[in-house]
Write a structure and sequence with these properties.
single chain, mainly alpha, 79% helix
Amino acid sequence: MTSKTDEATGSTDALGYEQARDELIEVVRRLETGGTTLEESLALWERGEELAKVCRRWLDGARARLDAALAGPELAEDAGGAGDGGGTDA
């Protein structure tokens, strides 16, 4: 039996956040539903761990971009304010 999870194993690098999240939701649903063998359950668990890492990387990257965007104007203002007043006293 070949499932979507079996086919996608090992290809997490190419997944976008939404794809990884949706597949992770499906993995969790299958694990919660039961009816799988121990081997299938372990494979699903491992796939879920991989997918969770992909999601975490995407979220960490999004957080870094957001932090940089929010810090960008402050850094520009701080640098501009210090540069304007600092050179006239000398």
